[in-house]
Amino acid sequence: MRPQKGDEEAKEEERSPAEKDKNDGEFNEEWKEYQSSGKWGNLSLSDIIIAVVVLIICIVGILVVVFVVFADGSSSDSDPSSAFASPTMAPTLSDAGRREEGLQLIRFVSPETSFPDTPEELANGVSAVAQRRAAKWVIWDDDTPVTDEFFLFRYALATLYFSTDGPNWADNQNWLTSPDTCSWNGLVCSFGDLIDIDLSDNNLNGPIPVELSLLFQVKVFRMMNNKLSGVIPYEHFAMIDDLTTLRLDNNPGLVGQLSLDLLKNGNICECVCVCVCVCF
pTM, whole model, 2 decimals? Predict the structure, then answer.
């Protein structure tokens, strides 16, 4: 059985010898013109070379893009978590884990206070102890991460609030309500750092909590003209290296004496209290 011929092949056989000679003649004429003028039709040799070079560059560019795409795909496949994990996102604790770790941290910084065994017991219990009330607030009502330094800052400030009858202060605007500590009345910040606490003439009533030593960035404490009482915790104020001003005057209920050997940082330039005034 003879194979059938294609359409082009059949057409080629149907062409007469005269037509074939005509076509061959036309090609020869174009070839002769190219040899004499350096042009093939309307294109010069330089145009053809440029077109070839551009075509080669395009092909190379496409190959590079394809290679990069496949290389990225293979690296993503090798790490199953890369499609889900963000390199800038730190792992976070669950709510239960955050509360448990927060309670452990507070136990460490407030060793003189007895706390319940679990955050749930802390939440369900009723206590007049300022540290417990502050711990309950920062663990259950606040959402600051335990790993954030502001966790302990906010705990210390909440301890001051509850220890000195914060709900009955003359002005307690934004205290324990705003996530921005710098917006709380009497607090002054610089570039996000708490540097000045001025709660003078504000009806503070109660003892000064030792947890204020956690506010290591504070340079100025002003709590004069209030109803503060109890022993002045100078040894804890001495732990604040940047402290330059301490004003506790006109608080008749305060007792204690400033001891120079406790102020080891030597930066105090203004210190006024009930019993002693020392500036150095």
Answer: 0.63
